Batch of 4 targets.
Target 1
Amino acid sequence: MSNQSEMMIDAGVSGAQSTLPVSRMTGLALLALLAVAAIGGPGLIGGDPAKQSLLHTLEGPSAAHPLGTDNLGRDMAARLLSGAQLSLSLAFLSVITAGLPGTLLGIAAAWFGGWADRLLGAFADAVLALPGLLLVLMLAAISPGSWWALYAGISLTLWVEYFRYTRQRARIVLAEPSVEASKLLGLGPWLLIRRHLIPEIGPGLLTIAAFGAATAVTSVAALGFVSVGIRPPTAEWGVMMTELLPYWREAPFLILQPVACLVLTVLALHLSVGGPRRP
Amino acid sequence: MTHSIEVDMLSVFAGPTRLMGPVSFSVAPGGTLVIMGETGAGKSLIAQAILGTLPGALRAEGHITINGSRVDTLPVAERAAMWGHELATLPQEPWRALDPLMRAFRQVTESYRFVAGHPPVQAREDTAEAFQALGLSGAEDRLPGALSGGMAQRVAFAAATAGKAPILIADEPTKGLDAARHAKVVDLLAKVPATGGTLLAITHEVAVTRRLGGHVVVLRDGQLVEQGPAKTVLSAPADSYTRALLDADPQCWPHSNPHSAGDVILTAQDLAIARDGKHLIDGFNLSLKQGERVALTGPSGIGKTTLLDALAGLLPPASGHVTRAQGLSRHAVQKLYQDPPAAFPTRIPLEKSLRDVARLHKTDWGFVLRTLEHLGVRPSLLSRRPDEVSGGELQRISIARALTVRPSVLLADEPTSRLDPITQRDTLRLLEKVAAEENIAVVLVTHDRHIADKWADRILKLAK
């Protein structure tokens, strides 16, 4: 058909393709910044997130406390960094522990088909039928305030997405003639997965991972905010919001800080994988 | 006199680049115009310029006159108002143009109702009449997915011509059809000028041009190569490119040299195959000898591809046996596919795919490069991804890939049906040469009986 016009449109796009779109650049830069903050933690500014000073409560920014102090006189910057450490490490770990088994099970289901596929599918549907929050709340009830309960609950709800996505895509990819050709040519399962599957489903998985990480960060904060997740005095963004909420009239800039951190993290994660993609 | 379509110095531009043209031609009512050329020659651009459906980035220059009134200066809305009434089009691969969720009868009724403007009762009567006339009885309540390629083509034809437009534009009407349906569609189109309509057909097949006749325009890379009455162009082409195009018609191929066959390497005994519980082929026997070229023909849907899968050992037969000669390696049977881009991992460079195979089979990379050179593939192509290489080149690369494992049998599933005629001939010639040199037996599935006649040592016909 209009081969030339397609070629032309292709040529027009390829110039822009070599450089990332601005939104993705922004997202990745923000993400890098957050990663530095999370890895460095409160040590970056040398503050102690737990040290109270009741003489200096609800103070504005100063040289000693660049972001001010909270209702107990604790350094806000140190507490935010400590919260970043907690939220992001939990998000990172839950993405890995949900993504890896989810993806592998998805590939297994598509590969073997038959009863293995049906069994895994039914199991995933069963997990999906249970509201994710309920699972986390149950685990939190068993072990209140524990980081591990949150982590396990979030991972257990997130893996289903990877599983369903991978199974669906892998089933289509594995049925393609190219896979049959590669099998005839003697390529083993590992090479088939590496050459056919991963390039095909990788970008999609990355998107799910980023969105999943954002979900994990917000879940932790939400549970902290309703006093089910992490308990005070641990510095956690959701917990901080709860603690600072009564003082919103006297020191509005304080409550805004954990909220801004949360928004920035979710924004960074979403932007980093967004933008136009080649089909 | 008033011409149905008159095109004067038409060119199509993308920005400053001329993609096609300039061409000038005219067709009278009751006449036929055939535009010939290979993929990418700009044939469809002419049809789009006449219809006014060029993609936004493209621009047409020149005069286009339809039924005596100039249309290229009209606004889009006024040109759209002509669709179905003055100009009708039969799209490429019509099964993709039909609404997949609407039954065949209703799709056509809608055309009669809304394009032709008939009242509902009459629209239904007209549709029933059209179904009768086109031999579609029994297909009324089927969804497009359940129609065969030929039926879908006729349903699309009925829908397109409901508005009684005097001009019909058919873009590659025979694409993807097997021999029997191919002939039926061409017959259907040939009736258009016979009943006073004007036909503009776009095709790369010489056989279609020969059947339709009329005035022929030959394009190459957007340039007009030659034009004239079909008789003159087909019998005494003035340009060497036209001659090459005509020579590439399988009907004109010389017979391939018969190859002395060696020992039997693959036998099928009393083979019955089924796919998804559907019984396809019974009692199939074959003994394939080294270096032999066998053509396998039969109507679409009879199970040719499934049969190849059974021969390749990809599908267990329902009954009977496929036996390989002793000492044949596990990878001795290889396949070539109809759609070359679908036969390679999509997102990785070709070189990686080839190196994987070479490494697994301990084939020297130099051997692979020599094979590619022998097949006329530039090594620089290997850094590209499959969708960035032309179909003909990719099919040659897939032949080279198969040769890397030193096969004894190549099962080729319509390997050239999506290629242009000249590329098709060259690819099959290469396949013949390579098979003779390496003593490889080839089973070629084709729906073109001329190819089967000219290319193969023997022909196996599958019939219902």
Target 2
Amino acid sequence: MTELINRILSGMSPTMPLTRLLITILIMVVSAAIVLAVSLLYEGFATYAERKVAGDIQARIGPNRVGPYGLLQFVADGVKLLLKEDIIPFYADRWLFIIAPYIVFTVSFAAFVPLSYSDHVSIANLNVGVLYMIAISSVVSMAILMGAWGSNNKWSLFGGMRAVAQIVSYEIPIVLSLLAAIIIPASLSMRDIIAYQSGGLGIFRWLVFNNPFTLIAFFVYFIAAIAEVNRTPFDIPEAESEIVAGYHTEYTGMRFAFFFMAEYGDMFVVSAIAATLFLGGWQIPFIGGIPMPVWLREVLQVGVFFTKVFLLIYVMMWIRWTLPRLRVDQLMELCWKYLTPIALFNLIGASVWVLLLHDRGVYDIIARVFTR
Amino acid sequence: MTNADEKFMQVNMGPQHPSTHGVLRLLVTTDGEVLSGVKPYIGYLHRALEKIAERVTYPQFSPFTDRLDYLASMNCNLAYAMTVEKLLNIEVPRRAQILRVIMAELNRISSHLIAFGSFSSDMGAFTPFLFGIREREFINDLFEIACGARLTYNYIRIGGVSKDIPGGFIEKTREFLDYFPAKIKEYNELLSYNAIFIKRLANIAVISPDDAFDYGITGPNLRASGIKWDLRREEPYLIYNELDFDIPVGKGEMGKTGDAWDRYMMRIYEMEQSAKIVRQCLDLLAPGDYTAKVSKVLKPPAGEVYVRAENPRGELGFYLISDGSTKPYRLKIRAPSFANLSIIPKLARGVMIADLVAIIGSLDIILPEIDR
């Protein structure tokens, strides 16, 4: 993104500072609009996919009325939610109630920024990309509590308390397991991490296969990530059968839709982090080494990245429609008694591995033995 | 409100709540997630059925019994028909008796399927619910063949059944019986032996045999506490004494005897037994009258009679007083769910909100029967 702006600006005379500023702002707005459009489209199709996957698992058909194969169902849903009456409860804290869904949505949208979709497609190649993601996803818990408290509904408050307790707890195993992967490429930039995973047919140098500790870290991360996005079996903050709809009980229409879309946005983000850090991001498997035009490579890379992300999202949906829900204390028990210690010792193990073997993974060692 | 009360929060669970199985209102006193007391309030569905009984003739009340436990209408019809027959000393033909057993047991299966399904969705797994509905649909089709209705059948009438079964019913029922055992296996794999499910239910809300007697608990809930009491065995009616079936009792397979998991599992076991009973009845079915000769106007002699039958949810009893006219003088209905509900405040002390949902679901109460 910054490179793009610099490249365009370098062709212009440096004597027009105002024009330069305008063009910079224009490019930023356009790219933000593109990301917003893509993420909204993704969220729409994700809800469609969720319903189709659910239908498939539950021995029924799923949406098939609106558009071919029901593909336009999400448009109908969106229109319906927009046209619904926007109810703000009389005793609600209006200010908190109104602002909470926007924060939740903005945050989930902001998390798309540092992702590296291919070698050259990314909004911003932050050198602290992973840290940024972790930081920004924590803001969600604050916004959820705002909405829950602002609703002035006891069930909402229950949901909000549960959500915050859960998200804050699960941040710890998430960070610890991500660290186990990050110490190998020794970078927090998404692009650098993916670039590090090149070679080995585009598969075997994935960080998940780097050493046994990263493999464990991947599974710890994925379990914790499901909890982070509040999905079954960890969906206690919005456990329908217990606390109605949790923190968004009082929300209607488009405000509810913001919470709903943010959930799918978060699913994308946590899956994208998993794909980036553990599964080689946009590294094209098998045919990555063949020379090909740049545009084709970029398209393939974007395709590969999205395929990996969607596969992980599919696994989340699959789990959701198969498993029952944990109880709130069992959820905390899982986090503090199992995932956190495992992640911690795993991090120590990974550190020792890096200390002894530097960044050489299992594949590098095997490859060296064979080439000798 | 005193100072001591301010420590606790009072929440209304219901009458509009996803998991109170209808319009049950529970006034819940909580200290965070832990409940300190639950007070059920009932009557939202009161239709004065017992008073209506005094205003209509004996056969006219039969359709009202459909509306008692609407998931097991056949069983309610059966108990009422047996009550009036006992008062009138009517001998029911053998074919009608066998048909009654077939219908009652098929309805038991379909009722337990809903119990299984709604319980699973209370526990956060929505898929088993639709699986349960899928098999129940088959039984509904069978009932539709037999009597034309899919929910409130009014098929079992005073003296016999309303009409003989049409051709094809027996074949279709056999088809169902061949298909059903595989599905029960599927339920067990999907839900019953799921680790999360067991963790949620084992040792939760244990009903000791003494408590079960004290609170008048009947049906699968009583048997789950390890007491072998089933009216089909203890006071055989119809042709149950000729049939070979087991009475499953709770053995505490996953925890203490009489816990929520045992109560859940009783229903799975009973479905297997009911399928076995239906299979035997189909073999016993011989040509004959489907109803006894009953006069158009029923004028039973003055007197009183109490008849009880084993319903899917426990003992359904009708206490009928006749003054010799065409209308009952008084009809008292002993609804199993009412007694089963009464133990909730005792079980729900010191448990968590999620456990309260498990308690309601495992007791499998149905509100129209409680409120009448």
Target 3
Amino acid sequence: MLAQFIFALRTAGIPASITEYLTLLQGMKSGVADYSVDDFYHLSRATLVKDERLLDRFDRVFGEVFKGLEPPEGDPMQQLPEEWLRKLTEKLLSEEEKAAIEAAGGFDKLMELLKQRLAEQKGRHQGGSKWIGTGGTSPFGAHGYNPEGVRIGQEESRNRRAVKVWDKREFKDLDGDIEIGTRNMKLALRRLRRFARQGAATELDLPDTIRATANNAGTLDLKMVPERHNTVKVLLFLDIGGSMDDHIRVCAELFSACRAEFKHLEHYYFHNCPYERLWTNNRRRKESEVPTFEVLRKYGPDYKAIFVGDGAMSPYEIIQPGGSVEHWNEETGQVWLDRMTGHFRRSAWLNPMPEAAWPRYQSAQILHKLMEQRMFPLTLGGIDAMTRELSR
Amino acid sequence: MAGFKSTESYIASRDLEVAVNAAVALQRPLLVKGEPGTGKTVLAHEVAASLGHPLIEWHIKSTTKAQQGLYEYDAVSRLRDGQLGDERVHDIGNYIVRGKLWDAFEADRPQVLLIDEIDKADIEFPNDLLLELDRMQFFVYETRKTVVAKHRPVVIITSNNEKELPDAFLRRCFFHYIRFPDRETMEKIVQAHYPDIKQELAREALNVFFQVRGVTELKKKPATSELLDWLKLLMIEDLPPEVLRSSDPKTAIPPLYGALLKNEQDVHLFERLAFLSRRQQGR
């Protein structure tokens, strides 16, 4: 049962490992989650999920695997409401038996029997024909195979508590494939940061100083190392206008996330596909236009190029000279894109359209191919994959 | 098993209790994440108090190295002593400075060790502590001595998610994500901290607080600790609860907002919203 749960988690993309599985078993053995489904849920969550973005997915898998599992928790004596007994009489007993029970002392007798069994029973029980639990044939309990079985413990009040904890899906917002906000994006982009020592020597290098001093026969010889600086350089190319209008908000967020994260960040705009001219200010486009060659010359191959665009256009805009919707382009967009990706050692394309929609646009597919599969959706997961690709 | 439970001053949800108890029972580190101000660090204090163990705090900065938690070899003072001809120089043990982990390992009774904000450190930091936290022992090269934990400490690690933690490290931990408390829990938390707060004031303040949190464009949403600070201010100023009723457009910005809104863009946003609502009322 549990192994199946682990496999279901792994299929859903939660990287639960054998060690964690063993930890879970160990935790159950040590009695951290005694006889309570809720506690088992909490324990398995704390053991198997290590990333809040996966919590929602975990809830879904848990709900699926343990569907129909009822919690036989709490003090059973206090949780035996009158209705159970009423149901007993309605469903379990025939009219004659009812009459017989009435004669033999009525509900009290039955209540006593029930109490007696509950008292004898120590823990959670499953199967069997006598004890109260789940899945048995005793008239008392839940999910019994006894066709007339009284569904004790499936009263609404208990049921509500049982399913809801993981069915509430409170971690939905944290799922990496769904939400995208400035802060989350920053997180993903941080991966791009790479520390390297550059600049003036400002820190005392103790090991080197000791070595140098020893070599100097004990006379102090101070050695310095440069301080750490964030040296990641990013060049951002943003598609603007036309079909991109729907995605302005997400792109603005990406932009502000980038701004704060990198020391060297430059951005240029293009429309649909980059051609021989780019611009830096969309409002004063004509004045701020820069030849693309100029950009390639100005920024070294160590800049990481990120294109942001939905890639939704006519295929001719990419593969045909003069295909641009705005001007006559001598060379195709494909040539320009190849030039740019060839110049910058690391490049990627971010697409604000959901990944499932890409196959519908031929142009998006062409771009995906031109980028050598380095087109990523503009979701947290996509940015994560992109930054991993860019910082390899 | 004694177990960790909510206390008078700290309201823990059931899932947090289970996670803490699992970590204590299986002697593995507990990694706690969550929005800033939801009581991650306070949790360690509460766990220490409820288990009756002393708490050792290790606050991580961007410059902290894993080695500093174990021990440091003070080469500079040995060098100085050597040049001055001090006798101590012959025993290298005199220059080994113990770190927090060493303290926790060598203590005569179990300890609670808090490694606060582990994500502030270098990306390799957690990896450097893998073996130490797993086996609860480490080797001191200078003195050729192995330090083994007499009692495995309860290790609580907090993270603000600024860096991704390595998988190998995560495998060894229990994980808990502190969710932002719902209104009911929040009322309990307020009650726990300020038992003699006026009911009406608390209610109105919570209304305002959840309204502020409901504004989606906020850069930094106020969290539990901000709410508690704000309530304290309100109590000190002894403001009547009526002031908090937002039906009056002039007070659409909550009084003493400095405790709740922490950057000027958010304050501007609120002023704009207040202006809009005033104009609507004027119509």
Target 4
Amino acid sequence: MELIDQHTKTIMEGCKERARDAGLRFSDETLEYIVTNRDMLELHPKVMIPTLYDYWVHDVELLREKGKYELYPSNPYETVINTRPPISFYNDNNPDWLNVMIFYHVLAHIDFFQNNLYFRHTWEYDLTGKALADKRLITRLRSEHGRWVDYVIEFARAIDNLVGYFDGLSHLFRQDRPAFSKRLDYYFDVFLQEVKGVKTAEYVKEIERYNRCKREVGEMCEESFFADVVAKHPEFEAFYLKGTREKKEERLDLLQFLMEHSEFLNQDENLWMKSVLEVIRSTSVYFQPQIRTKIMNEGWASYWHEALFLTDDRIKGHEVDFARVHSGVTCLHRVGLNPYAIGMRLFQQIEEGADQGRLSLEYQRLADSHARKEFDRATGTGRDVIFAVRENLCDFTFINTYVDQDFVNRHHLFVVGKRLNAERTAWQYYVKSRKAEEYRGMLQDSLYHPPRIEVDRTKGGGKTLYLNHLFEGKPLISDFIANTMLGIEFLWGGPVKLETSEVASAPPQEAGAPRGEGEAPKIHWRRHVYTMENRTLSKTLV
Amino acid sequence: MKTDDSKPIELWNISSLAPEPEGSYTTRIRSLDELLERDRLREEDGFPRKIRIGKLIKPGKGKQEKFVVVPTTVEEKFMHDRAPTPPEEEEPMGGTGDEAEGDILGEQPVRPEQGAGSGTAGHGGGEGHELESSAYDLGRILTERFNLPNLKEKGKKSSFSHYTYDLTDRNRGFGQILEKKQTLRRVIETNIALGNIDDVTNIDTTRLLIDPRDRIFRILSRELEYESQALVFFVRDYSGSMEGKASEVICSQHVLIYSWLLYQFARQVETRFVLHDNDAREVPDFYTYYNLRVAGGTRVAAAYKMVNDIVEQESLAKDYNIYVFHGTDGDDWDTNGEETIPELRRMLTYTNRVGITIAEHNAYGSRGATEVERYLKGSGLLDEKPEFLRMDVMGEDADETRIIDGIKRLIS
């Protein structure tokens, strides 16, 4: 692993200038490393962070990757990690023109990391540095506690997809908002409505009273307002304190909850485990936005390497080479999804649409297909709009907002179904739908979406930890439940219950009944509770 | 950006030979053995094992498929499963093209043709797979103890992922060792072409132009290592009398042998499985071989005949080192071996080793009472061809050490 040579670095700096001129924003300093394919394979299990802690699962994955490489050798052109400064990795055999293209791609990734608000919490520190400290910590713990460190890592990683990423993120942004005081929020949102259950008229009256108070007293209004409140409801202060404390605790994700409330982890001899949990949790939180912006991030990078490469004066004569590589990266597969392709085309369509003023109510209301085709308000705001999109959206909102029928029609997209043809004993791939709605649904279904599992403190009680899986139409992978719960039991130090939904077999009278063509069979969901106690799993129906 | 463009594999191979740089940013990667040892310790600590041995297969033309053995593990988490779909329908995916709704794009057979494996490994395999992965682990432990006897050079060679590195290939421009003579020859050729040399008998070396591309080097290159091909027949008696312990003993012995073959020779050893009661039948895989239970009479000759026929019809003897392992309880309706012995003689003409294991029923009392044992001894074949025929008799309640000992006797 070595830095790129001065010649290549000059190319990179040239790319930076042009990218900046086009409006991309990123830090001045970047690090580019040449790596061998072997390095790449070794970095891969560590999510490309060279300083990530050691863990045996990474070794297993590495051995598998090496095996895979023997059969299917292939190299990524580049990989970028979201660090300070941003680090990117390359193979050493790229010609200059290809490097120009790759560097633009990389710079767009960096721009995305540093401007998309879903990455807000990663802006303040450098992950490689933190990871190195974590790695040293874990190495030290291993020398003290042996392989038990690896068990704790394993059990913590088993629940690291349940981290409260959005909770943390919303917390970051909430501070920016000119907020009403917590006390005021509590009084109007919780105390009056939930605790007292006042009538609407009375509620409005209180708001008026507050507004009047504000007009009259100005800055000191809250004090005088609450003086009256306490006079009327002497219990308010107590409720407020209790209420806000509970509110805070509700926000804990499973890992935080275990760190805070597990008696086992809080025993003196086990306190070291909490540091391990913290390492796993913070690492996981760091990577959450990356999985949630894959289509956007790759689309953004592909959009820019195309736009900037074609206007770059240094690469004259390599247009055909570029076209070949570029189309390989961004082609729409006949069957299958390519995030680069979908993302790039969406950005292009948004830009074009905004330029023509099509992202407007006026256009949306237009029913005449000819008029729609001809519609052009020449607003010229395309670039501004896509910059705003890259700042504010994640994959879900991106797809949900911009994958429409125009997009699906324009690129001849469809949903492919796969069904069994019993007579020919073959799977048939067929065009299932060309509707934007279904295509969007299919895309959304492919996005990363961990289950929402919360600690329910009203149930279980005392020694038992009760987890509630909020049902979203999909069951959990049942094979994974046992070992995951085994780990939670270990960390909790007592029995663990998990409430979740599973498909029940159809009742016999229905199973035999004839069913109309194309009519989906009804799915019967049942609520089950899994219990993990003394490392054995049992299951009961709710 | 990922690409499917396969870059030259040599690069990786050469760099993998280079010594690990000191103070590497990744610590030393644990070997498979270390990982499996660590996995074994999990059981002691009261946690289930996590590492499975899987295979990656790259389908190729005919029997050319390439495969590598890799460990796999799954990090279990609470994760969404797929939403339930009707049994005849799979999850939808994306696509692009001009077909109308309902048009069929293509189809794929439900069961891939023999040999056309999928490129996935590990998780999700059936029970047959499960058996193989644990067998692999077992084979590793056994491996130092055995060796295939009488392995000979035979016609068909196969090679899988065994490679050696040799300085045999020549390369222009760069490489490890300069080939002076070849280089000189090229330099002369170039200079003749350039008209730089007027008289070939009297060359003025000071006038020669040297193009860097004229330099010829020996370069490190990867060579396939060929090994002699072996074919192992597993033959098992699954008649009614085998019910119970006798079957267990034979099966576990064959599992051990199979495991060891799997580990030691990967797929370079081909295996065939024959079961017999009154008649013989060939089954496709070890899993079926291991699990099938049928009651019936016993005729050893049927099985031997089948093995002989297979070898003859497919003319395997020419290309393969052939080994036959037969397990029985010693019962045979052909009491004096009148049919069996000729078939066995025929078999011994081409095999490298026949190993017969007899798991005696305890109820039969005195040792040496079984028909098979009696007629084998009676035939004199055991003394006549000790290099090619081995017999081992054990009680049906033999423990694992005895079984392993049995394997040694059969193949030593």
